[in-house]
Amino acid sequence: MKIESLRRLRGPNVYLSRPAVVARLRLGDLAGRETSDVTGFPERMLRALPGLAEHHCAAGAPGGFVSRLRGGTYFGHVTEHVCLELSQLIGRDVSFGRTVSTGEPGVYHLILECPVDEPAGSDVPGELLEVAVDLVSEIVAGRSFSSVALATAASGVPEMQHGSTAARLADLASLAEREATGPSTRAIIAAARRRGIPVERCGDLSLVRLGWGSRRRLAWAAMSDRTSGVGIDIAGDKEITRRLLTEAGVPVPAGGVARDASAAARLFAELGAPVVVKPRQGRHGDRVTLSVMTGAETAYAFSAAGEDVIVERQLTGRDYRVLVVAGEVVAAAERIAAHIVGDAGHTVAELVDRTNTDPRRGAGHSRVLTRITVDDAVLRVLERQGRTLSFVPAAGQRVWLRETTNLSTGGTSHDVTDRVHPDVIRLCLRVAALVGLDICGIDLRLPDIAEPLPPVRDGDEVTGGVIEVNAVPGLRMHLAPVRGRAHDVGDAIVRAMFPAGSDGRIPVAAVTGTNGKTTVARLTAHLLADTGLRIGLTTTDGVSIDGREIFRADATGPLSAQMVLGDPGVQTAVLETARGGLLKRGLGYDFSDVGVITNITADHLGQDGLDTIEDLAHVKALVAERVRDGGTLVLNADDPWVRSLVDRPRVRADRKRIVWFGLDPRQPVVVEHLAKGATAYLLQDGWLVQATGARRTPLVRLADLPGAYGERPCTPPRTLWPRPPRPGPSGPGRSRWCAGSPTSTRRWPTPAGPPCCAWATWRSSSTTRTTRPRWPPRCGPCTGCGVPSAAWPR
Q1: At what angle do helices 422-435 and 238-247 cross, to 10 degrees?
Q2: Does the bond joining 698 to the residue before it have cis omega, within 30 degrees of 0?
Q3: pLDDT tens-digit series, residues 719-778
Q4: Rounded CA gap, 324 and 321, in Å?
């Protein structure tokens, strides 16, 4: 078997509403064979991946896939399920898969769901499919795999031969975890989506765009686009922070800056033991040494921290972190340094290994807790306690592994939000305002956060106070404390960014159909711009913002849509949405307010796997399906395939406002629609009319409508007609505009009247379609409508 190609659908698509990949799989020697043809294959596969027993498949209940496996199914279908199971093993929470024939024997398309926020350029889906293909092939060849080995590999801690299936799976598990959003970013994304706010992640970064256009906001972990740059710089320099807070009367420990070892020694002598030595600009507790008791230890700590350090008195008490968001204390936690608890039977090293098996612990900040790493700092802390890694602590005996309480060094947290004294709350709000941060984490060392703080007295020693201010605070300790109540601090940040329940959306209109999309999109944008709105427009010609073209290309796909929706100057978006973009990349938005479907005709068949008009209608229906509940769906009543869309369950027409347009007011669907008091737009006695129930409101005379070519059009001005082709160096192209029928292919149009007139009055030796007309045409005013050639549409 071989994966021949892979494409990613970044948004809602014809298969499901979430991102997916479509892989083209060639079965090779396994073409035409089924699982029941390979002796022992189902049993070996289930021994390797016992989780397959829970897969529903078409049966809709656990065990459905096993029944297919034993009864006989194609190996493309097996590869799909194996890939889904491997995804679950490495932590990718996906469940949708589908295998469809390409029409070529032995070649299938595998459609597999991807995590919503997985980077669009991730290698994980493709490599995971390769592992699935190789695993199925090896089991077909008779090889057996241990489910324990594969599960262990999926934990990301490989202990197997390089290049083996298990080792490749372990590498993929590590890659997927590195690319995934961290807990802080994930909490903000989840809170935004609960509010219906669109979310777009920037690559594999923690930078996310929340909302669209003029209402969009940016967040990078726990930092917003309105977080003060000055505040970030202040918080990043511990000495400036100390100085600013001291001058404001905030209790902070005594200390100062040391740029050489002698200065550090002088500060140690002045302050007295114990002191803390830390980098002036550091984070996550890196290179921080606590409980420095001697001059020699001071020199060692200075060397470890770097050449620009802070030496300050170490306060007694407990470590706390208070999270302030938009002038409100939203959570507080007591931070506990990394440690193990003895059981009288295992060494410290063994207990560390056991602690690290906690599924909540991961590498770095990828999970709510961080694995404990045994390094020189751990060995020094053990030495101070008279312990070693081989020491066996008594049952219940606590052995400290770190002095710093950061979660990034293996620490844990206990929630204390409900215990914070009002004096401490007022202090934290003052600190956030003094530094100038909308979101910040304030680290305190206090005897008890539930007790009031005494005022700072000149000359008195500070016994409790602020030790640091963090500009981009981690949220893990509040989201998943090991003790106490979890707090949805991501929601607090989103509420601050989008007050008053805003969903961060701007109006979006999507236009699709076989012909007329560009014309309708341009007219829509033009009419909206007349109201004073700044419009973002995508068409086959490019992307325009506020009437100015910024990008020239066929811009009818999801990347162009995101270009418009991500522009902070756009107040309303009009998006031409073409078949190619829908199939190859999916939609560039989740829901629109208005969906327009001009027509569905038998053009472009034989492309992109669309062989019938039914296939084309299925693709175009996606635009109708993604109109939000309560939105407006504008449909061509004269087109039978467009009419059929309202009967599709996924369109949910009963939850949308349907507006029909057409030429025939006697069309049954229009008559029924108007009988219900609804609205349609029709042609009547030379006027474009708005019909609502029995009421008719003339809007504009057809003769006055630009593009209608006067009062005598040879064909009515409907979106069923394509716009004329652009002229090129070799002529205008083969136009479908003709006097008799929009699908006529027998003759070039004749000057019988518009819309043919813009193309028909040339002098040519022949009028057959096989002869190129001369360009530009030699013509005068059109005899069909009297419009001078200077006014003809290009």
Answers
A1: 120
A2: no
A3: 433 333 333 333 333 333 222 233 333 232 333 333 332 233 222 333 333 333 333 333
A4: 10
